[in-house]
Design brief:
Distance between the termini: 32 Å
Number of strands: 28
Order of helices and strands: EEEEEEEEHEEEEEEEEEEEEEEEEEEEE
Largest sheet: 5 strands, antiparallel
CATH class: Mainly Beta
Radius of gyration: 20 Å
Low-confidence stretches: 3-41
Oligomer: single chain
Shape: globular
Mean pLDDT: 91
Structural class: mainly beta
CATH architecture: 6 Propeller
Strand content: 35-45%
Length: 414
Amino acid sequence: MRARRHSTAARAVVLAIALIPLASAQGILAGERSEPYVSARPPSGESFDPAKVRISFSRVARNFSSPVFVTHSGDGSGRLYIVEQTGRIKILLNGSVLATPFLNIAAKITNGGERGLLGLAFHPDYKTNRKFYVNYTNTSGDTVVAEYLRSTGSANVADAGSARILLTIDQPYSNHNGGMLAFGPDRYLYVGMGDGGSAGDPGNRAQNVNNLLGKILRIDVDNKDTGKQYATPSSNPFDGATNGADEVWSFGLRNPWRFSFDRRTGDLWIGDVGQNRWEEIDRSTAGASGAGRGVNYGWRVMEGNACYSPSSGCNTSGKTRPIAVYSHSVGCSVTGGYVYRGAQYRELVGGYLFGDYCSGRIWALRAHGPASQSPVLMADTSLNISSFGEGQDGRLYVTDIGTGDVWHVVAAPK
């Protein structure tokens, strides 16, 4: 995330509480184990057409304290879990927010700016093993990935004393902490790490495969290597190599604040926050070992499709270009989203929705479109979009860190 730069009054369209969708869309140029929900890749001619869809928003809950994520536990219970940056996880069940937090670790975190409780992921076997994982910055300002257990006495609360710290990663600056956690189709835990902060990646950490910053990490939480609280899969690109940290899965990222896996194909989508000019969305299609293995997304050599360091004539060899970029004339901090795979809105299936934290704009890409696309503007809202989220039924949600509201994305044909 990044501090909001654009005032609401400066936008071309400002939406009231009803958040009426735009009347028309417009282009803005700028392996080893399987997961049950992943099925065969859909045909290349998937029918999502952003020009034929309009979206609006229905508020499902309000008055959270700096909500930064919403997700489900995969246990069929219908619970939604809302992550508050201030250190609590709350449950939304049957339209009501439960009074007692699911977990409260406010005393363990540093909160403010880009720090706090930032990520949550439930183990694929959560229903039976009760395990879930959080990503937070501790009181020293460093990243912690920890495992907790749901209480045996109530499904609505966690066992606060069950913490097992898997990873602690030093953070040299207060910004670019990453924070995203997600289990991939391979049942491994993926961890988003920013480049360590400041500006311009002064330590060139994102391109250093021996450093865990500026990366997506991939770990096996069900096993342990010697001296670690987890194992690194042998299919990780640098596992056991003399050059490269075992945990590194992808690199060359500035701040992959939010990423997601397409629940039907296993493709990996990353919203990587830019520096001064360009915001980018990266897409890696799933292969035999998974999506994104060993991919270099370019930072700090490149920002989007442009050279950054050096500012011209940079070496683009071996660097994967983003599927889409947008300039800071329309936003300033990308919030990655999800490919819609729900059954409620047929016209939205196959559309990848993402937004901008500063401007409140929401765009769409075609999940099975070409490797380079122009984002299509779907809505211009008054939201501070801190995150998108996905329910077990495939419904998409948006969290507004400014008002503390959580919204459900509603789609309709034009």
